Amino acid sequence: MRILFLNILIRVNHFAKEFVKRDIGTVKMSSKKTSITVADVARAAKVSKATAARVLGGYGVASEKTRNAVTEAAEKLGYRSNELARSMSTGRTGLIGVVVGDIENAFFSRAVRGISDAANAAGLNLIITNSNEDLEQEREMVAVLMRQRVAGMIVAPTDVRDTVHLEAAISSGTPVVTFDRVADHLVADSVCGDDAAAADQVMRHLHDLGHQNVAYVTAAGFQGGRLSDLDEIGITAVRNRIAAFLTASERAGIEDPMGLVFQNVIGEESAQDIVAAILAHEPAITAVLASDSLIGASLYKAFKERGVRFPSDLSFVSWFDADWTKVTAPQISVVDQPTYEFGQKAMQCLIGRINGDSSKIEHILIPTPMIARGSIGPRETCGD
Amino acid sequence: MRILFLNILIRVNHFAKEFVKRDIGTVKMSSKKTSITVADVARAAKVSKATAARVLGGYGVASEKTRNAVTEAAEKLGYRSNELARSMSTGRTGLIGVVVGDIENAFFSRAVRGISDAANAAGLNLIITNSNEDLEQEREMVAVLMRQRVAGMIVAPTDVRDTVHLEAAISSGTPVVTFDRVADHLVADSVCGDDAAAADQVMRHLHDLGHQNVAYVTAAGFQGGRLSDLDEIGITAVRNRIAAFLTASERAGIEDPMGLVFQNVIGEESAQDIVAAILAHEPAITAVLASDSLIGASLYKAFKERGVRFPSDLSFVSWFDADWTKVTAPQISVVDQPTYEFGQKAMQCLIGRINGDSSKIEHILIPTPMIARGSIGPRETCGD
DNA sequence: TCAGTTATTGAGACCGGTCTCAATGCGTAT
DNA sequence: ATACGCATTGAGACCGGTCTCAATAACTGA
């Protein structure tokens, strides 16, 4: 009788426990309805969490029967993997950090498109950040990306003379590839246009057309408002162009080539000032090189406003084949920077590094040929 | 003797196990050297992990003495927080997913800049993806973003007639804001230009100038190569423009307004075909509206190649005030879409939703006024 | 059928942080 | 000195997945 009672009590207790367990399970599932886990799928498929994870994560082995059961349960439950959890476990994220000057600048947005396409093809995704060509902001963005534990970073460094933050990232095991600019001392691959060759080519072309006084216009600002030392320039792309420009100007007999470098052109107001200075220059400047397409567009508009005719009054070349260079009359001659390819190459390098490639650091130079259009003409037609 | 031998064997085995364990521990610490954890900092500061986390995570309370000790240890060790772990715990990431048609299109890159600036100001970062205005790719990108557990998404939907994937995201608790396009049935805020009003304004202006046969050129493709039903258009921005265009054309006495909608202009080749068709149109088409700046640039170039003069032969208006519209001669009249503001507004809406705002869904309409420039002129100067 | 080998599965620890609540410490009043 | 209330701290569970290795199952050959 006593034994029978105890037996009944044990059964009731067992039933109550099963009831509570089921109830808790129901509540849990209800509140977590929006996020099904591997454990949920495993329960539904009547396998262990580890087995379900193997199937859903696509690693290890599982029998076909098990695989089907898990797959079906996952579909039925609407399982969606959690990359955060996966990344925590594996120590690897599928995220790539990108630091550009300004995503709105077509030069960078096209490069980002190239990076993005190559990344997506490799199952990776981009976190895009803007440095605004400001070192402090670049540092902050790199820190943000490091906290996100990006698998690697592609950076257009604002100033190659101060890359401590990039060195720290690299030391932490995060591979870095720079694009458009190269820091020689950094243990990072780089992908850049051949700026020196391009500047040289443009200058030769202009000299062949009889030009001697050629101006170079840049956004970079110099101490005392005038270039006196190339080391002032933290963006290697710009430095290389100007170095080649100076060499070529000397070759053409210019005694003070640095005096032909016009600085600090950021936006249309400063372009107006520079255009006034160029038009007032003695001896007359008969050709202008714009360091990038933003500057190019501002200068072009300012010159047109003053009634300058291309190429009869002034020959004009801009870096980067932006959309606007092809609707002007005449069309603008450009240094064609294939930034989509820059981006693709940079991403390919980075994927190699992420996958453990420890071969020698590469500095990839991509040709950036001049496209001569109607904005360049012989000096004799340039009025004197 | 046998017992002695077994005893020695057991001791050797034990020693070997301890040796291997020590060796593994050393290797492990060495490989983890680059990632200092809260536990490491806690150890160095002689507090518990929970306390160190409180200080480093900036939540809870800690004495000043403790705070200083932890902060100092963290600096000395070079602690860098792990957002993955934090997000796992908190159930919240600081990532925002963005799906645009093509980051390279200035319309989107400027919007993304607006989104990015607003996000960064709120301590958030963007994962940018491209849909290429393809529904399948959009679905895939949304899935990728959901797997990353983004805190919310800003999407320019490719087709508002099929938004199951967005509905699923919203049901999962991930707020969505659409921009440029609106899906009425979606429980999502939207930020768009007032396309109907803009089209109406442009048409009124053209009619006031005497134009009657005005063409609208779009990238959208229609069944049978001709627009017959507005519901064919999955992008609401385009649909609204065309609807207003048709209404205004009818008002101006056009009997078959749909015949003035030219479709499927993607790239410069198709632009050539469309330009030929427009120039051959009877009665003569005296004004053209380009649905976006990519189409606009292609059309402009094709017309110029055929010697068309603006505005004497043809008046021309393009949606979006792209850079190229301001260097043509004459400058192009545009519908100014302030996409930077679109992006900012969208991000603000999304931040509200992420923070728990459950107020009524908002559809924000931003004015997109016409900027009349030299490409528009009276019909009488347009040759007949 | 039994033994040996290979394939599959499950238990439990772990990633690096957050969160909860009980334990401990500190300050104040009697 | 003792009691009470408040502030601070620590222990341990947990987030959702991966990884390791022992246990179990399945297969094959004698």
TrEMBL record, chains A, B:
| Residue stretches in coiled coil | none
Q: Which residues form the HTH lacI-type domain?
A: 36-90
- Highest taxon of the source? Bacteria
**Which keywords does UniProt give here?**
DNA-binding, Transcription, Transcription regulation
Report the PROSITE patterns cross-referenced here.
HTH_LACI_1 (PS00356), HTH_LACI_2 (PS50932)
GO molecular function annotations of the record: DNA-binding transcription factor activity; transcription cis-regulatory region binding
Please give the InterPro entries that the UniProt record associates with this protein.
HTH_LacI (IPR000843), LacI/GalR-like_sensor (IPR046335), Lambda_DNA-bd_dom_sf (IPR010982), Peripla_BP_I (IPR028082)
The UniProt entry, under Pfam families, shows: LacI (PF00356), Peripla_BP_3 (PF13377)
State the protein's name.
LacI family transcriptional regulator
